[in-house]
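Help! Submission page says 'invalid entity' but I think these are all valid:
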Amino acid sequence: EPEVTQTPSHQVTQMGQEVILRCVPISNHLYFYWYRQILGQKVEFLVSFYNNEISEKSEIFDDQFSVERPDGSNFTLKIRSTKLEDSAMYFCASRPNLGARGEAFFGQGTRLTVV
Amino acid sequence: AQKITQTQPGMFVQEKEAVTLDCTYDTSDQSYGLFWYKQPSSGEMIFLIYQGSYDEQNATEGRYSLNFQKARKSANLVISASQLGDSAMYFCAMREGRGNAGNMLTFGGGTRLMVKP
């Protein structure tokens, strides 16, 4: 069964460093998302991406964040200068079509720890 | 106002019994979807069940069913015959149909279910 793959599963980084979280969505999916979950809290939407551009982003997704799909398969989230409060589980998700129907398929997550 | 509210931070259920996890939502859209995801201690998000706003029948997927009461804006998850492996966090989520927007999911705060042997 096709699945969304995220790497690495866990990353530890020093405050102020840049990190890139990688995702390989399901191959025929068109819509891609990043969510984050701070430990013990709810899952929060960061950004959605369609047709090689951001379609929507939340207030969390400030200038420190960027996304791209460099080669048609990978979907990356970059945090330019990490802060302690960026420590969270980051989930990539993809879905095949627009509209309210259809579930998003989530990757297994990348746990980011900023020290 | 919260778009998705899960009022039970934690619940216990005896193995083999049924349990209902509550979820209420708030939207002005006519077209929307409601989802339940399971998050075990390993951290991944596992899709369980979906209910569309125009679906007249309650959704069912194996031991999972969704008690959809549109007028009350509730979408409770019912797990029948609980198993030890059902112990996990459960998140209710909503996607509002907004045409060509991002159609992201909005999640509730989750309910931690613990199944007792």
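Support: the input was valid. A stray whitespace character was the problem, and the output above is from the cleaned input. The CA atoms of residues 44 and 64 of chain A lie 17 Å apart.
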